[in-house]
Amino acid sequence: MGKALSHEFKGYFRIRVSDYRVIYRINYSKRTVTITAMGHRKDIYERSPE
What we know:
Blueprint: E1 3-4, E2 13-17, E3 20-27, E4 32-40
Antiparallel strand pairs: 1-2, 2-3, 3-4
C-alpha cells in the first residue's frame, strides 16, 4: 500500500512512479482499488480528488 494522503485528499493513497504519482482509493468491503488520478508530481495535487 502507498502513502496515505491528508487534508482534502483524506481517504486517498498515492504511489510514486519515478516523477509521476498515482492517486487511488481502496474499498475494503468490495475489495476494489479505484485510480482517481495520475500525473506529474508538480501538478497532480492541484486537482480535487474527484
